[in-house]
């Protein structure tokens, strides 16, 4: 009963939104607006219209005069980059077609400058269905996080183009309008045309190695995010992705380093052992703080793990695959700090040298919290004493890719 009520109250929340958009007979808005490409003083606004119109975005600091950026020709698919933004500041914006407003006024936070010690982000994964992801997106939108990482499996069952509107753009609309959502590829996402629809939808940072940003990195505030692809790109030693990752980690000047990779190298269910043997040495050598994954439909956090040499840094592994898919059972490993089969999402807040992670059960509050401190010269976390069940577990599906 509670779940039903929540769904209907969520629908009530969304109805005025649709009325502004595709549901309204006289509005040509079919999709969005949604934010992408958070970069230095820049963010992109994307949307779709049913007829070709000249799009523009009006934006301002609250209380200040409106500024506007317009396209030069009519189009149905719109992308406008707003540049010269004041870093880390909340703006108001509205999209227009042929000078007619197409949306209500929304807010976004301009990307944070590299020297800004503050940052907040959400993590979700495996967002099957409509009702649960919509409720998670609504809660996340309410937290005011700067951006959201999607650990993969955005569109079930197979990442088809026609499922993006009913399965993503419509139910997630309030979140997409206020914070950039940056995904990595899950196994379901690559099933249609090797993820062609995914790359038509998302406008991701380019990494200079591949034509499509199947793996990419970006900097926000004092954090750098390395978003990997283990579903459609090789990642073995010597592969372009491996070399790109090693160089990026080695040269990063960010205090905080995060990896997002769909298949978890450490989980109580199906750890990807090849990934563990291949990539974990890099994570430890170059001081990755947290590795976020999806794929297993549960929430799990590991103890800090160090397997490959005493000079490396212990790494924490977080699985957030509870975005809507049917929940998984688990058999806790001896590296597990906490594991729970729940639907929900993770939030991370960074303030100077302190990181605070919370795992939220949808509608049920905080189920796990965890913090990392990084005052200058502070010793690393002691690693967990770790002996795997067996070096290579039979039940683990060997990856096709490395
Ligand atoms: Fe999944």
Small molecules held by this entry? fe (ii) ion
C-alpha termini separation: 47 Å
Give average pLDDT, whole number: 89
Strand content: 25-35%
Low-confidence blocks of residues: 1-23, 390-400
Q: Counting H and I runs of at least 4 residues, what is the number of helices?
A: 7
Q: Specify the helix fraction band.
A: 10-25%
The biggest sheet, with number of strands, parallel, antiparallel or mixed sense and barrel status, is: 7 strands, mixed
Q: What is the succession of H and E elements?
A: HEEEEEEEEEHEHHEHEEHEHEEEEEEE
Which strands sit side by side, in order, in the main sheet? 12-13-14-15-17-16-18
The quaternary state of the protein chains shown equals single chain
Cα-atom Rg, whole angstroms? 21 Å
Please tell me what the overall shape is: globular
- Could you give the count of β-strands? 21
Q: Which class of secondary structure composition applies to the elements?
A: alpha+beta
